[in-house]
Amino acid sequence: xxxxxxxxxxxxxxxxxxxxxxxxxxxxxxxxxxxxxxxxxxxxxxxxxxxxxxxxxxxxxxxxxxxxxxxxxxxxxxxxxxxxxxxxxxxxxxxxxxxxxxxxxxxxxxxxxxxxxxxxxxxxxxxxxxxxxxxxxxxxxxxxxxxxxxxxxxxxxxxxxxx
Length: 163
What we know:
CATH architecture: 3-Layer(aba) Sandwich
CATH topology: Dihydrofolate Reductase, subunit A
Distance between the termini: 17 Å
Helix content: 10-25%
Oligomer: single chain
Structural class: alpha/beta
Number of strands: 10
């Protein structure tokens, strides 16, 4: 099953200036992310990979990069770090995975994801260079459940509607 996991502000922001706009203010969200994705395959865009700065441990990391190379011109692949040239390639070869960002990965993932986990950060973010989570069409996805993450955060789980 392909799933997506994200944290968004009240106004849908997922990133700013190559990082989380709320920084490390919500460690319970990071703990939830780690719990859900540990031991799993994760798929991310090259910008997200660069913003993290490394492969996430205890996961198989799939990075989408259009030329198959990192910015230094070398192909760095290993058992826990794999590069794919397109989202289509990643989704067809890794059918049990979590899409973890960024916006292009989420946009591509809307076509194939069966579930979407969105944790709402109780802040409104403004400014330049903001990145937003794509629109989740209620005709395609319905709310399956809500989960409390710690005392402050709520994660809404969406499930793809069957036809």
